Amino acid sequence: MRNEWSAYDLETRTGFKVEVKSAAYLQSWRQKRPSPIRFDIKPTYDVVNEADGRWKQSDVSKRQADVYVFCVLSHQDKETIDPLNMAQWDFYLLPTKILNERAEKQKSIYLLVLLKLEPKQVRYGEIANVIDELMNTEQI
User: Fold this and answer.
1) C-alpha distances in Å from residue 112, one per residue of 67, 72, 82, 115, 128
2) 2 DSSP 8-state letter
3) What's the CA gap between 66 and 99, in Å, rounded?
4) How far is CA 66 from the centre of its chain?
5) Which of 92, 93, 75 is nearest to 84 (CA)?
6) What is the pLDDT of residues 68-123, one digit of tens each?
7) Banded model confidence at residue 47, pLDDT cuts 50, 70, 90
8) What share of the chain has pLDDT > 90, as a percent?
């Protein structure tokens, strides 16, 4: 279950913090052309629970997760699109360290630019294991 106040989307069973971003070429409204794929990657402020029970925003803005999972609903036929069909999605994993080094000031990133950062493309069922592999070889 996701904690809405958390600075990242989820934590793996091995303790890595994960931010999940998703985008799709097709939208529910009428389109003249597929939507460009762009993800929000701006640094954020963490919110911490103080000893007195009050929530306080941290003073430092940063990317809070250890790794990003970029999800693209790549299927482009409105008649057969099924967001619950994981075969219609592409998944890209990228350690936050790489975003911080190569896209430090960027608030968003287009798919073509993301691909130049050489994210690891995986199938849905591989995400958890590949996150562990990636993060255990990276110095976060």
Assistant:
1) 19, 12, 24, 5, 24
2) -
3) 10
4) 10
5) 75
6) 999 999 999 999 999 999 999 999 999 999 999 999 889 999 999 999 999 999 99
7) confident
8) 74
CA 117 to chain centre: 14
- What are the extents of the domains in the chain? 10-137
Q: What is the pLDDT of residue 46?
A: 79
Q: Tokens standing for 34?
A: 């597929």
Report the distance separating Cα 68 and Cα 39, nearest Å: 11
pTM recorded for the entire structure: 0.89
Nearest CA among 118, 99, 121 for reference residue 108: 99
β-bridge partners, 73: 24, 89
Relative to beta strand 38-40, strand 55-62 is unpaired
> Where does the pLDDT of residue 54 fall: very low under 50, low under 70, confident under 90, or very high at 90 and above?
confident
C-alpha span between 134 and 9 (Å, rounded): 18
